[in-house]
Request: fold
Amino acid sequence: MLARLARWLRLCGVDVSFDPNVGGAELLRAARAERRVVLTRDKRLRTAPDALYLRSERVRDQLREVLHRFAIDPHRNALTRCSRCNAPLREVSREAVAYRVPPFVYASQTRFSQCDSCGRIYWRATHPERIMAELARMET
Reply:
């Protein structure tokens, strides 16, 4: 239900746990055990004291609401977590990823980050620019 929101929050550097197979009471129990807030569109959970019910179906509006509600600066820790699995990214040398990225990427980029959990490689080409521009638009 909120997979896109989870990805955007991770792009903002927010530690987000997301499992589409967990819901209801189990979700609340897990969140409480980990001291997390539940973000939900499930009307049954909207009265839980540690849940934030998001009214909008649009990810931009959802993200705007979460950033505002929790006073998160989307630029402060942007692009420091894996957007897929949530693990912190670690900067790695070009040489370490030489055979793991396309040749044109290796030739044109100097800085790389890696997720130690899932192995995904990140670099700052056009995607980060577009992500940061989108975040700037959401702040207005």
In short: The chain has a mean pLDDT of 93. Strands lie at 38-40, 51-53, 89-92, 112-115, 121-123.
